[in-house]
Specification:
The chain has about 80 residues and is mainly α. The chain has one domain. The protein contains 2 helices and no strands. Helix 1 packs antiparallel against helix 2.
């Protein structure tokens, strides 16, 4: 009776290509958060203008949004292509 059962090979939900694209997306998001960090001041009473530089205001959020777009593409990409 057990010999009649067909053994199915367990498959991943996504293909290898999808996982590689996901890792690239996660890397881009991580770079965005790294660019966003820092710029603090040792003395809280002193204002530091570094918090408003272009890297934290423009580049970091753009990288995070691009990374999220890459993640969405990785999920929707056809794994059998």
């Amino acid at each position: 009776m057990m010999s009649n059962k067909k053994e199915r090979k367990q498959e991943f939900l996504f293909g290898k290509r999808n996982y590689i694209i996901m890792l690239v997306g996660l890397f881009v998001i991580a770079i965005g958060f790294i660019f966003m960090s820092g710029g603090g001041s040792e003395n809280p009473a002193v204002f530091n203008k570094e918090i408003y530089n272009w890297q934290r205001i423009r580049l970091a959020p753009t990288l995070i949004i691009i990374g999220l777009g890459i993640e969405i593409y990785a999920i929707l990409a056809n794994p059998r292509k």
